[in-house]
Please model this.
Amino acid sequence: LNTFMMAAEAQYRGMETGFQVGYGPYEASAEEIWPGAHVVFDISDWFFGLIFTVQIILRMFALRTEFFRDFWNVVDCLIVASWLLSVAIISNMVFDPLLLRLVRIVRLVRLLRLVRTVQLFDALYLMTTAIKSSLSTLLWSILLLMLFLVMMGLFLQKLAEPYMLDESKPIEKRKQVFMFYGTFSRSMLTMFEITLGNWMPPCRALVENVSEWFMLIFLTHKLVIGFSVVSVINAVFVQETFKVATSDDRIMLMLKQRARKTHMNKIRDLFQHADCDGNGTVTLDELDTAFSDPEVLAYVSALDLDILDAAQLFQMLDANEDA
Model:
């Protein structure tokens, strides 16, 4: 709910910004589009701020010195401190708008609380754990990819520079080439776009304006870097995820519990199928009738149950021998 309110407030501020700069569809102020929304945002800010503050105080009294040994408790302290600081700034008659804006940015750490919630779900916990375990792999992948992109960016900038400086060429076309390859920073951004995004506009800028031979350079880069290298990096991350899934104790426990629950549900389905009269109990005759069905025998075999006949299974389950 807190994240939803923060997203709604960001949308509200964005509409107001669009109105102030005169951007296309935003012909009315945010207050006219969402009347009274700022009041709701102020109330929600106080509500969540007080909730977090009371929660952190109670946790401090309960845990005492153990409180600061948990990373998430430190995150909660940052959340409360940023909210208290914003309240203190707003309550003063004179305040620095820039400081208030910075404090509100710090309050975005509230979103980190979602990570704690995510860890309550096994599938999401697997993803977050794999991400944390893949940080070193991510670092080396970034360095490798950056090396290729820097080399390619410098190479294309040097090749495009004579065309951009040629005054005999149309100025609009020179500007178009400069937009993609005019400086090193522009060339690097273009290389990321070519490798991971929409690669046709920067490719066409050189092929259509400078030379069609650039087509070979772009196709080679897309096949070698954009396809092969990026695919290898993706495969490494997938391998890291499987490694985490097979080595993390908590994930192994969750997988065992899930398998046990699934097995219990299948056993329950088996006995519900055998309960012909639907009275909630299964007799030997009902079980024997069920086991006469080849599909039931195949189902029991798929459950890895080493049962020879219905009497053997019934004897194993009839603990009080009342049939």
Notes: The radius of gyration is 32 Å. Residues 214-247 form the longest helix (34 residues).
